[in-house]
Request: fold
Amino acid sequence: MDEFAILQSTPLFRGLSAADLDGLLGRLGAVRRSYNRGAVLVQAGQPSHSVGVVLAGAIEAARLGPDGSRLPITRMGPGGVFGDVLGGSSLTSPVTVTARAPCEVLLIPYDQLLRPEGSAAGQRVLQNLVRSISDKYFLLARRVDLLLLRSLRAKVSAYLLSEAERAGQLTFRIPFTRAQLADYLNCDRSALSRELGRMQREGLLDTYRSSFKLLQPDALRKLSQ
Amino acid sequence: MDEFAILQSTPLFRGLSAADLDGLLGRLGAVRRSYNRGAVLVQAGQPSHSVGVVLAGAIEAARLGPDGSRLPITRMGPGGVFGDVLGGSSLTSPVTVTARAPCEVLLIPYDQLLRPEGSAAGQRVLQNLVRSISDKYFLLARRVDLLLLRSLRAKVSAYLLSEAERAGQLTFRIPFTRAQLADYLNCDRSALSRELGRMQREGLLDTYRSSFKLLQPDALRKLSQ
DNA sequence: AAATTACCGTTGCGAGGGCAACAAAGCCCC
DNA sequence: GGGGCTTTGTTGCCCTCGCAACGGTAATTT
Reply:
């Protein structure tokens, strides 16, 4: 059963041995569920009292725009953790979570997670839970930083630089299509294409589809302000 | 000692009796510190391993812009909790926390907070800690929602409606000056004044300084999209 | 290979809003 | 009351970027 491998790789259970996990899951009251494609795991407007870990397949969280359109927020594959931020609050879910593909999910009651049991494993999971939420906070904060930039060129420069830093090199691929990147940066897709074209003509970068190569990172750094 | 009253009102210690608190603080290894105005509590770029609770006075968190200017992020008075989000991650602080006024602060080592001790009080604090971080996440998410709106009028409408909802009435005061609100909405101050003037002339609202009165909330709701 | 569907680049148009500069009004302290 | 500082309103200029429409290329299906 290599499901343990996935669990050990998920942020929530990082640092635990298979033996730790085996004992822990039972005490936490974790249950395993299967969902068909399109099934709803969490309904927007409803409270949710458990943390989910994706074991197989993929899920998607989306909101309903005021006009009724679906606004995708995020997607997760095996190892993904959802419901962690919401569980901490007393709010109802702002997002609907659906199965993007047939999937297996581990559901853990939230109150059990917060119940200390003295074991080192339980403590570690707690630490991981807090870490997981904090990481999502900083992920959001990073996006705010981008959204605050005044010009489109600054947004693009800042985003590409941060991706280059994450990749550790100046040539990298981004996890977005053009349209998705435009959404992320909150700009028009054609305007984004236009700007990328300009920057390419100016010799700042090279791009084809999701692939990017930063030619003048220092110049980009100046622009990203 | 009405310091207990402040502690009991802080998100971190909500729901605890004075007796609970008395025993808990010692076991958590909490220490009390005093700071003069301008003193640095947390230095940007440095890690921080404790959660702070403001007992008296006020603190301010600020970042350094790329040009070296100070960008204030948030302010906190008695009851305010800081360092909670950061402690969950392994990052260094993105903000510098300084004393805006002479202040008293309670510092609690982060690892002690995550160490379960079986007591109901400890468990409650843990729950509160997670809640505190989650709340900050949703606060940020709320701002993202505003920043994503396309037009300035939509931003203003959405912001004012949410403030009205918070206040529970259509007449209320906002915690910002014009310039601060412009920063929050990420727009130009003069553009904001212009837009507010227009909306006032159209009979949508009334405003003087920080005071607002929404005259046509339904119309604003349509605009905030 | 044709057809259908994503994905991406390009361009013209026009307005929203950034920027700068100035003026008026409120506030504080002497 | 008068000088200085802060906050807010106003206005002209003009550039960026949203919007809409179209064409071209890659990916996928039949």
